[in-house]
């Protein structure tokens, strides 16, 4: 799971062009929106597309469930891991 969190941190930095950040600068438990990283809805769309491309996961735009997945890097990693697990 830690490797997946690292990959997601790198994906956040590359897909959102946050060159001034390093993966180590992102706390896996910190909120991604408002406080924490301070991402906005446009960032969420871009990150969602990047996650879909990289991991083949499907996210619905306005669901509460998607908002929970985007709560933190840790939540995103758990979502991706669950989505990739064989049914």
From TrEMBL:
Name the UniProt record assigns to this protein: Phosphopantetheine-binding protein
Residues of the Carrier domain: 2-84
Database matches in InterPro entries: ACP-like_sf (IPR036736), PP-bd_ACP (IPR009081)
Entry-linked PROSITE patterns: CARRIER
A Pfam family that the UniProt record links to this protein: PP-binding
């Amino acid at each position: 799971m830690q490797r997946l969190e690292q990959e997601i941190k790198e994906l956040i930095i590359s897909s959102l062009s946050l060159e001034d950040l390093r993966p180590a600068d992102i706390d896996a438990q910190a909120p991604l929106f408002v406080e924490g990283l301070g991402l906005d809805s446009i960032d969420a769309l871009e990150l969602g597309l990047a996650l879909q491309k990289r991991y083949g996961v499907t996210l619905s735009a306005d669901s509460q469930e998607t908002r929970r997945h985007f709560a933190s890097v840790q939540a995103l990693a758990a979502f991706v891991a669950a989505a990739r697990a064989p049914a």
